[in-house]
Amino acid sequence: MPDILATVDPLSWSSETYGILIVVTLFGHFLVSPSTRPAVRFGREALLIIPAIFVYFLVRGLVAPDTATALHHARQLISFERAMGMFREPAIQRHVVGQHRLVDLGNWVYIWAHWPLLTIIIIWLVAAHHDAYPRYRNAMLISGLIGMSIFLLYPVAPPRLVPHQGFTDTVSLYSQSYRVLQPPALADPYASMPSLHFGWDLLMGVAVVREARFWFVKALGLLMPVAMFAAIIVTANHFIVDALAGGTIVGFSIIAAKNLDQLDLRRELSALVPHGSLRSRGSEESRTSSAVAELPDIRISDRRRRAGLSTDMNLDEAPHPDINR
What we know:
Layout: H1 2-8, H2 15-31, H3 38-62, H4 67-83, H5 89-97, H6 100-112, H7 115-128, H8 133-153, H9 170-174, H10 177-181, H11 196-211, H12 215-234, H13 240-272, H14 281-294, H15 297-307
Helix pairs in contact: 2-3, 3-8, 6-12, 7-11, 8-11, 8-13, 11-12, 11-13
């Protein structure tokens, strides 16, 4: 019986098991054809996002722990923050550690306002804003790829593991939940820089603010990165500069994902407009308008919304991309 439980318990799986799972789920993603049916759309996205998350953690988990190098890099960041007048993490944590309710709140936000909350928002985006969702998904994948590269090339110990600096590991001391959410085979203690805990909460916060209809939901989007920034400092899991790096990477990734989205639209328009038939600017615009009209309605309304156009505006009045540029 214990052997059976170990087989179905993800916390006991090896890195090789996760590697096989990644290959199988990605293969399943490409086998499932795109569809407008919600169940198929959810399943297809799950078969892409889940292995991407596993790859992210697997890279972290497979990094050979080099404590000396990671601590050296952490001390470099501390020296940088001191030079910039930013090294306030020990003082901030000292004000909080003696107040157990604030410690519990910081731990709760760090653990439950990351993967559990991100999962809920991703599901909401797929279900209610599936035309906008790919941009946020792509931004998450791009930032994750950049983050993994930095984890490999510049491992950094988190503040809680740097000795003689006065930090307290509040999550390990007062909570067991994080061990449930991150299997040991996928753990990397030296992935402090950049902080994608903050960066991805910022990304999903942007998504909520931009896509939600109600003000109180938008307020949640504004609160997410602020609360996570406070939590990563209070729990001594990241330096301030880690959060700044994570936010910068996510900002770049949002811009890159937007450009990919525009490139995808141009490809669609180019496929609909006959090659070699554009003789003038006027004919180009008229044919582009005709091509846009042939796109599915759901894509047109989404492009209008992203471009800030009124849904009542005639497409001939709106600026059109130069597909030959």
